Amino acid sequence: MVKIAFFDAKNYDKEVFNKYNKEYKYDITYFESKLNSETAPLTKGFDVVCIFVNDKADAKTLKILEENGVKILALRCAGFNNVDLEEKGNLKIVRVPQYSPYAVAEHAVGLLLSINRKLYKSYQRTRKYNFSLDGLLGFDIHGKTVGVIGTGRIGKAFINIMKGFGTKIIAYDTYQDEKFREEVGFEYVDLDTLYKESDIISLHCPLLKDTEKMINKESIAKMKKGVIIINCSRGKLINTNDLVQKLSEGKIGGVGLDVYEDEEEFFLRDMSNSYVRDKNLSILLSMPNVFITSHQAFFTKEALNKIASDTLENIKNEMETGTCENEL
Ligand code: NAI
Question: Which domains can be identified in the chain, with CATH numbers?
């Protein structure tokens, strides 16, 4: 029987994977710990290792997996920036390229509305019977210019929603989808123009060498005063030191983050009883115009079902045919 070591397992993962595994009947062992070079020895005797966004498959970890006889590394996510692909050796690596672009795009819009209309503040106030409007002033999103970086599946879903708000969309992507641009009606621009003209900027590109820390003090300096920045992609797209500095100078109007540069130790876990803290994360959480969620943009029923079914199907294809369309 195929043996799967499932890392960073949460209750909701177990529930949905056990449901779909009734069909596949794999032997799944759920580990709460994340995969890294220290936990990699746990994989001895397993055929497949299944990981998520904050597990770390660096060169050292991949070497241990291979030595332990693991054949397949199955990512139950789309992004693969946490895997050192150049060091994969004979390991087959598969991923779930899309589970629900709508889930992530809708969450990005949720962060935007929360930041602009200060919904998180209103919630805290009204619970205390404080019904004052002081400090809650927002602006109409209608008529504003929205800059979208990355017009892939999620960027497209985000653009479609923002079109409904009556915004002007400008976008940057290294690959321009002319057909989609024509259908929807927006403009591709260079990055400098996007930074200069956008009232709202939403990041939907992958984390790559050339996108790492693309939002930094130089790029922020080019943006409008009061710009709102939304990041539902990867934390390392933003230089957090620079973000904190520009927020405290009043250059940025608001920030909505579902991801954070150094999220691995904190996100997707309850750290409320721990004394371990991250300086920049604590500063951001204390700021009145920053709203942070814990890498939850993907987290809908539809996405979880698709993640489980596609991950198990990827494993089946690799085990039975030695190949799979979702192989990296
Ligand atoms: P996708 O592969 O469909 O689209 C990515 C787009 O980015 C492509 O159009 C590509 O040409 C473009 N791109 C590549 N290099 C670029 C560059 N240097 N500058 C600008 N654009 C560039 O990916 P999808 O499904 O839209 O996902 C986007 C990202 O969202 C993923 O890479 C992942 O990091 C993140 N994500 C976050 C989730 C969350 O829960 N917060 C869940 C799923 C994905």
Answer: 3-99+300-321 (3.40.50.720), 101-292 (3.40.50.720)
